[in-house]
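Posting for a labmate who doesn't have an account.
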Amino acid sequence: MEKIAAAAPDIIIGLVGWAETDIQKLNDLGIKVYIVDANTVSEVYTEITNMGKILGLNDAASKMSSELKKQVDEITSKVPNIEQSQKPKVFYEVWNEPLMSAGKNTFISELIEMSGGINIVAADGLEGWPEYSLEKLIQNNPDIMIAPISLAPDAAAILSEARFSKIAAITNKRVYIIPDNPVSRPSQNIIKGLTMIAQAIHPEIFGEFKVIQ
């Protein structure tokens, strides 16, 4: 706190989840704090606009938001007519012990749905970042598994797990590793996450999967 006070920032921008006590300490030091709270793509557009207001860069923010929306629409426009029965089932592995995933009201779940996939965890009615049993995972038998690089350095790390051996995604080698930032932080970089997830789910539409940093 002393170093922050010495730096005398005009404002601090943080992500939702900060401890209220820390925010209060900063406020007591006379430092303004803005907390970004965005759980949907639509809310990302709003937060980009808000950043523009805070930084005095309204035009640049508006341009960035519009461009991002255009890029997102280009992807979503290619999958609206896919029948529900034809959508691959997807499991995003957030953590391995305990097994955790992304449910409803998360970027990851929305990006999967925008890409023409079914998030099996959201389909089970779970929200946020729930634990997910191995039994449920095997029962729902996802066609595709995706994980962040912070969990697995490469697909082999997941493909080699014996407990997953009978899952379709493993037997068909449809496991994809993506960088954390494009799917975990609300910014213009979510288009990278959406592109990679779309390629993983529908390579016949979006081309071969490639990691985008």
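Reply:
Got it, the structure tokens are right above this. The two ends are 32 Å apart (CA to CA).
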